[in-house]
Amino acid sequence: MNRRLPFHSNAVWPPALLVSVFAVFYGIIAAGLWLIRRTTPGIEDTPEIIMIRDVILSAAAGLYALFRLWRFHPACNYAYRNWLKLSPWTAAKPLPLGPVHPVWQDAAVIGLLTAIAHWHAHADPAWPGLTFGFVYLVGMTVLIAVTRRWWHALALGFLWPTLMLPAGAGASVFVVIGMIILVTWFGHRQSMKAFPWEFLKYRPAGSWGQTEIRVDAVNTPASAGTRFNLGWPFMALSPKVQPPKVSVRANLAWSTLFGWWIFCVIENSTMDPLPELILMFAIFAAAIRLGIYCNGVTPPFNVWGRFVSGRIIVPGFDKVFLTPIAVVLAAILGVIIVKRSGAWYPAAEAVVFAAVWFLLLGGGPSLRNWILTGQFRLKPPNRLNANRQVLRSS
C-alpha cells in the first residue's frame, strides 16, 4: 500500500513531557508579560524579553533534535541495538522504531516554533530552524564517530571549523553546509551498513576501563551469584583493557585536524599572537601524559638509591620522560618560530600546535609497550580501605 506522506512515523512526534515543559516555560513568560501590560499600559516588548523568548524557542528546537537522535538511533539505545541485532533487519530496510533522518513531522514541529517566534514572540523566526539543524548535524557527527566511520568523521571535522573562517561568509557558507549534509548522509548510511557494531558493548556503571580478576563464591549457597574481588596486587596484575594504539597515519590525520581547528579559531577571533599559550599547553599536556603513564607505578628505586648505586639513569624507566621532554622542547622552538613569523602567525601557531599534538600521541614508548616492558614497581594502594600494615604482614 502506497503512503501519501513518505517517511511517515507517528513515533516521531515530540513526547508529552517535552511539550509540557516548553508550554510551562513559555506560558510563564507570556502570562508575566500580559500582567505587566495590564497594570502598566504602553509597555512594549524590550530586547531582553525578546531574547528570552528566542532562547526558549531555540532550546525547544535543540531538545527536539536531541530527542530525535536519542530515541531513534540504535547507537544511543543498548536494548534497541541488541534487539535489532537479533532481528533480520538490514540497512536496506527502514528502522523499525522510527527513522533517524528528518521527516515531515520535523518540519511541522519546527514550523510551529517558527510561527510562534514570528507572530507571537516577535523574535527572529530563523533561530528555531537553525538551532534544530545545527544540533541535529552535530549529533550525527558525534554518532558517526561513535560508530567508527572515521573517514567521514574526519571530513566533518575539517568542514565544521571552515564555517568560522572570515572568507566563509556569503554563498560559500551554503556550499560548506551542503557538503556537511552530504558527508553526514553518506556516513550515516555507511554506519548502518556496518551494523551490528560489535565494538559498542554495554558496561555497568563504574566498570569502564577495568578488567578485574574475580572468583565465584564457593560453599556459600546463600550468596550464589556473588563475586569477590581478590584485591591488590592481583587486580594490578590482572589483564587490562587493551590500550588503543594510534597508527602513524591516524596520528598525522588527527594532528592536522587539531591544527586546522586552531587556525580557524585564530582567524575567526583575529586575536594577537600568543606564543606563550603554546608553551603552557605543551607543559600541561606533557604532565597529563606523564600522569597517565606513571599512575600506580613507581621507579625501581628512589633518587637516593640512584646515587648510591651509581645508576643515575635507569633506561627502562626513564624512557617515559623522553616524549614529555621532547614536547616541551618542540614548544619552545615553536614559540621562537611564531615570534618571527610576522603576519603569518595564525598558520605558524597552527603548525606548532599540530606538531606538539603529533609528538604527544606518537611519541614512544606506547602505553602498551610501557605496561608490558617498563621497569617499574607497582605502588600499593593508600586509599579505599587499604591497610599498609596488612600488606606488610601478608
User: What is the total number of structural domains?
Assistant: 2
Which blocks of ≥5 consecutive residues have pLDDT under 50? Answer: 205-227, 384-394
Multimeric organization: single chain
- The number of helical segments is 16
Strand content: under 5%
Tell me the overall shape: globular
Q: Compute the CA-based radius of gyration.
A: 28 Å
Task: Describe the protein in words.
- With 394 residues, the chain is an all-alpha fold.
- The chain folds into two domains: 10-148, no CATH class; 248-393, no CATH class.
- Helices cover 60% and strands 3% of the residues.
- The protein is built from 16 helices and four strands.
- The protein has helices at residues 16-39, 47-72, 78-86, 104-120, 126-146, 150-162, 171-193, 234-237, 248-269, 275-293, 303-309, 315-318, 322-339, 345-362, 367-373, 388-393, and strands at 214-216, 227-229, 297-298, 377-378.
- Strands 1-2 form a two-stranded antiparallel ribbon. Strands 3-4 form a two-stranded antiparallel sheet.
Summarize the structure.
The protein is an all-alpha fold. It has helices at residues 16-39, 47-72, 78-86, 104-120, 126-146, 150-162, 171-193, 234-237, 248-269, 275-293, 303-309, 315-318, 322-339, 345-362, 367-373, 388-393, and strands spanning 214-216, 227-229, 297-298, 377-378.
Produce the secondary structure layout.
Elements: H1 16-39, H2 47-72, H3 78-86, H4 104-120, H5 126-146, H6 150-162, H7 171-193, E1 214-216, E2 227-229, H8 234-237, H9 248-269, H10 275-293, E3 297-298, H11 303-309, H12 315-318, H13 322-339, H14 345-362, H15 367-373, E4 377-378, H16 388-393
Antiparallel strand pairs: 1-2, 3-4
Helix pairs in contact: 1-2, 2-4, 2-5, 4-5, 5-6, 5-7, 6-7, 6-9, 9-14, 10-13, 10-14, 13-14
